[in-house]
Write a structure and sequence with these properties.
heterodimer; A: mainly alpha; Helix Hairpins; elongated; B: mainly alpha; two-stranded antiparallel ribbon
């Protein structure tokens, strides 16, 4: 079980990080969302994986660790707030720069891919 | 109480000084003298104790945990320095009254001067080394401000910067040295440190500590090779040069060596570092002084040379040498301060300091000339003046050094040579300025005597030179004894304070120096020609070049790292996180811990498989944004299932509702954004990112695996046990949120509120036109609000509101609570917006979401503050309720109010964010259409 769970977190992290490194705002937002799934699952699992032990007094003989759960619950909500904020920042970027590149306004739509590599910024 | 008073009175005076400046120069000069006079009166009663080698200690606790205390200590050595600072300080205040012009910012000048005086007194009176360090840095800062007092001059600014860079840098080294010493001794109190001298010297870190402390002392006291800042500090007004840069501040390094003499001196390292540095400084300063045409330049290099002499004396390591060093501190302060003041008078009356132009002043200002000639003779070491006495002791000590073989000749030769130079430049000061023909092209002509009172400070100092020179035992004997006693930390060797000790080798050296110097001066043209053959090194240019070079390097480095590309920063961030995390991970070796793996059931495995595939698919199809979103929502749903599977019903419900809201949010955003991502990154980069992402994924897998297979213990037993009796609820997660960790939750909903308001602010009046088609050429559907959806959505609203009320109310005991209920309500309302349109829905909602957020935070805060009314801390924890069952019952209600606050904030924040985004389109679309037309 632990191996499967770990693989899930690994896949979420890998996809999240890859998208995080993209050049356009929307994939970055999606990447952040994936990454926060992974982080939430990871934090949750610091209380270990328990089956049928929901931390509600009187419903089970032993209980799963409630502390990471409380932590992750607020993390999910805050994560939403963060996603919304990042989305709005990218919308604002789009409105101000007429472009959705993470580096802001592109000075030119360059034909040469070598030139476009990283250095092109919104200075 | 008297010692802190001495230190802090000048600072109080500094605050008051600008007020007195309104009363004119005389008023402020009188007012500024008051702190020093009070301080002298406060120190006087302690003399009895100090004269017999005692110490006065006054201390208060400050930060005992890190060894800083507010402690002051007075002994003979600190008394000597305190007297120099206070007495010369008063003379300088009087002198500056006439030196400064009425139009200048005298308030600032006196305030800074007093700040400096307080800091300097702090250095000499602090008992705690860290406290001393604070004052040490303060003197560097005030010196910087005073050098740049005429900050319209570029040279003044540069000189000030150089002084600050050198002394400040040395200060850092000193701090490090002090920390090491404190670590060795286990205390920063001076008494402890001085008593632990043998421990320190035997410690392995002693060489490092000594080097660092000496760096601090050498930079402050302008020792070679750090001496260059002092001549450039001469851009300061002359009272500052006389006070800071000859009499007091540059002696702080000397003071430090004297202060720590019992703790650090007496080793080979001390001997070689201190004496050779002193010797080099002595010689270089004296040599260069001879060739300076600037009056103050000559005096500055002479100061460097004399500081080197004192350092050399301390370096010799014999007790008599230390006595001589302390003695020379007094003598140098008196004759050099008076010489600087005389130079200032000459500058003031002639308008220049160039000795090639100032000649024959004897005729115009005989009074000043007499004073300056006596002081300069003392500097040269003429008998019957104080400079002669300590120089004689210096010559005697230079003969005592036990250097091997021929090297034993080095110190006396260097000493005599420096003596020759000193006589030569002193002779130049006298002959060139006051005789040697007529003045050449003076800016102010004819020069005349300065105001009567401007000469009084000089007279007092010159009188002191003569008194000490003729009756040393009476005038300075007791003070010198007390200071020497404190410096050596014990018995003082026998020494004779007599004018003539008989006809011996030191006296011969004195005569040799005297006549050698006169001969050298008479033949000066040859030496000038010789010196002119060498290109003079402009230290300022070198220094500035080095600084510029460092700045360039830093800029280049910054430009490399920070090129303005967020994409690149993201990559660097991830890579550095990986690098930091990889090191402990590689050390781990085995990733499956003691508890091993538990079996997998098929449904879980399949769900996990789907999740993994969808996560990877999201990345794979991310260029088609809509499809990516669909796949992403599958991932989010399975995450919710995972929470449910692993005993976290609250999380499952939260994740599910957040997932819905998130997807709605991203869909809304996608409406404005291009529907697809262009291929723009080069293939090379994509492979690089895949590698980075792969490493991150594998790393997280291994970390998770390693963590999950370790046995663990949790602090949660407390929460599980006290949830029902203390918090009054059986849903432990909810009780943690609203009760145990209620303050955290309050913070989190505040963040939520700020994010929503930030979104509102960011998008206010932002024009944004949605693209006319979906990117593949399909126009948007005209059927804005589908009938079926509209019809189903409306009756759903009361139903879902009821569900959310139910979830809210049961939250304390069963899965649910404010967060989840708030999200459900939000979704119910969002559905109305989607089904019936923004305007239709908005018209029927009678409140603003800003107010909902505010109300929510208000509820939460009131619920927290309510416990204050019952005498418990804000958002009281459970502990109180166990002993107070009646109040415990009340807490159920109070927690519910808090949860209501959470509920309202979540609704307000979620809807404000989404409605703000949804609202962009109509207005701006119309607006941009109008603009287009």
């Amino acid at each position: 079980m632990e191996l499967v769970y770990a693989l899930v977190i690994g896949a979420l992290t890998a996809s999240g990080v890859y998208l995080l490194l993209r050049a356009r705002t929307f994939p970055v937002v999606v990447g952040l969302t994936l990454l926060s799934y992974g982080v939430n699952l990871f934090l949750f699992s610091t209380g270990r994986l328990a089956t049928g032990k929901q931390p509600i007094i009187g419903t089970a003989e032993s209980y799963a660790d409630p502390l990471p759960q409380a932590l992750v619950l607020t993390a999910i909500v805050i994560g939403f707030a963060m996603t919304a904020f990042v989305v709005v920042m990218s919308l604002r970027n789009l409105a101000d720069n007429e472009d959705d590149h993470v580096d802001g306004k592109q000075p030119y739509k360059s034909p040469a891919p070598e030139q476009e590599d990283e250095e092109v910024t919104g200075k | 109480m008297s010692l802190p008073l001495v230190v802090f009175l000048p600072f109080l005076g500094a605050i008051a000084a600008p007020l007195f400046a309104l009363g004119g120069r005389t008023a402020i000069a009188i007012a500024s003298s008051v702190p020093a006079l009070i301080a002298l009166a406060a120190l006087f009663p302690h003399w009895e104790t100090l004269a017999n080698g005692g110490t006065v200690l006054q201390s208060w606790e400050w930060l005992p945990a890190i060894g800083i205390s507010f402690s002051f200590r007075l002994d003979g050595l600190s008394l000597l320095f305190a007297l120099l600072i206070l007495i010369i300080g008063v003379l300088i205040i009087l002198y500056a009254r006439y030196y400064l012009k009425p139009a200048e910012n005298i308030g600032k000048f006196y305030a800074l001067l007093l700040c400096f005086k307080g800091s300097m007194l702090g250095i000499v009176l602090s008992s705690n080394l860290l406290l001393m360090m604070i004052f040490w840095e303060l003197t560097s800062l005030t010196s910087f401000l005073l050098i740049s007092f005429w900050n319209h001059k570029q040279d003044a600014r540069r000189g000030a910067r150089m002084a600050l860079a050198v002394t400040g840098g040395g200060g850092l080294a000193l701090l490090a040295g002090i920390l090491i010493i404190g670590n060795i001794v286990g205390s920063f109190e001076l008494d402890d440190v001085l008593a632990a001298g043998d421990v320190i010297k035997a410690h392995a870190m002693y060489p490092v500590a000594l080097t660092l402390v000496l760096l601090g002392a050498f930079t402050k006291s302008a020792q070679f090779p750090f001496h260059f800042w002092l001549p450039h500090a001469m851009q300061a007004p002359t009272p500052v040069s006389a006070y800071l840069h000859s009499a007091t501040m540059v002696k702080a390094g000397i003071f430090l060596m004297a202060r720590l003499y019992p703790a650090l001196a007496g080793t080979e390292q001390w001997f070689y570092m201190v004496s050779f540095t002193g010797m080099a400084t002595l010689l270089i300063g004296a040599y260069v002084a001879m060739f300076k045409h600037d009056l103050k330049g000559l005096l500055a290099h002479s100061t460097v040379s004399h500081l080197g002499l004192i350092t050399l004396l301390f370096g010799m390591g014999t007790e008599l040498a230390a006595v001589a060093a302390v003695f020379h501190v007094i003598n140098h302060a008196t004759f050099k301060a008076s010489l600087f003041m005389a130079a200032g008078i000459i500058d003031h009356e002639t308008g220049t300091r160039d000795m090639r132009r100032i000649n024959g002043l004897w005729r115009y200002m005989p009074h000043t000339a007499t004073l300056a000639m006596v002081a300069a003779s003392s500097m040269a070491g003429v008998p019957l003046l104080n400079g002669f006495l300590s120089k004689e002791m210096f010559f005697a000590e230079s003969l005592q050094l036990n250097l091997p073989g021929i090297w034993a000749w080095l110190p006396p030769i260097v000493a005599t040579l420096a003596g020759i130079f000193a006589v030569a430049y002193s002779a130049r000061f006298i002959h060139d300025v006051f005789f040697n023909g007529k003045p050449v092209n003076l800016p102010i002509y004819p020069p005349h005597e300065p105001p009567r009172y401007m000469k009084i400070p000089v007279e007092i100092l010159v009188f002191a030179c003569i008194m000490v020179g003729m009756f040393p035992a009476v005038s300075v004997g007791p003070l010198l004894y007390a200071a020497a006693h404190a410096t050596l930390g014990g018995e003082v060797p026998d020494y004779q304070l007599a004018v003539i000790h008989g006809f011996n080798l030191p006296l011969i050296m004195s005569f040799a120096a005297f006549f050698g110097g006169l001969i050298m001066y008479s033949q000066r043209q040859k030496f000038f020609d010789f010196h002119a053959r060498f290109k003079e090194i402009d230290e300022k240019a070198v220094f500035e070049a080095i600084v510029l070079r460092i700045v360039d390097l830093a800029n280049g480095f910054t430009a490399r790292i920070e090129n303005g590309s967020l994409q690149r920063y993201g990559m660097l961030l991830v890579v550095s996180v990986l690098a930091v995390a990889a090191m402990p991970l590689l050390d781990l070796g085995i990733f499956i811990g003691e508890t091993g793996l538990s079996p997998v059931d098929w449904p879980t495995a399949i769900a996990a498989g789907v999740l993994i595939i969808c996560a990877l698919l999201t990345a794979a199809v991310h260029r088609q944004r809509f499809y990516a979103l669909v796949v992403l929502s599958v991932v989010g749903l399975i995450v919710a299932l995972a929470f449910a599977r692993f005993s976290a019903p609250d999380l499952a419900m939260t994740q599910l509702s957040v997932e819905v809201v998130t997807i709605v949010l991203l869909m809304l955003a996608l409406y404005y954004m291009p529907g697809w991502t262009p291929v723009e990154t080069p293939l090379k980069r994509r492979f690089r990112d895949i590698a980075i992402a792969g490493i991150a994924g594998i790393g997280m897998t291994l970390v998770t695996l390693a963590m999950l297979t370790q046995p663990f213990s949790s602090i949660s037993d407390f929460f599980l046990e006290n949830s029902k009796p203390g918090g009054g609820g059986t849903n432990v997660v909810n009780v943690i949120l609203v009760d145990f960790r209620g303050f955290d939750t309050l913070g989190e909903i505040t963040v939520l509120a700020i994010a929503a308001l930030g979104i509102y602010a960011l998008l206010k009046n932002t024009p944004l036109t949605p693209p006319p088609s979906d990117g593949e050429g399909h126009a948007w559907s005209r059927d804005a609000y589908p009938l079926m959806l509209r019809l189903i959505a409306r009756p759903l609203l009361p139903l879902s509101l009821m569900v959310s009320a139910f979830i809210f109310l049961r939250g304390h005991n069963l899965p649910g609570g404010g967060f989840i209920a708030g999200l459900i309500t939000s979704i119910a309302l969002i559905l109305q917006y989607i089904a019936s349109g923004l305007n239709w829905t908005q018209d029927r909602i009678p409140f603003k979401y800003h107010n909902v957020i505010g109300l929510g935070l208000l509820f939460a805060t009131i619920a927290g503050a309510a416990s204050l009314a019952f005498g418990y801390p804000f958002l009281t924890s459970t502990f109180g309720y166990i002993t107070w069952p009646v109040v415990g019952k009340f807490e159920v209600a109070s927690a519910l109010v808090f949860d209501l606050g959470v509920y309202l904030t979540v609704i307000g924040a979620t809807l404000l964010a989404l409605v703000t985004i949804g609202r962009i389109s109509p207005h701006s679309a119309i607006k941009s259409k109008r603009e287009g037309a």
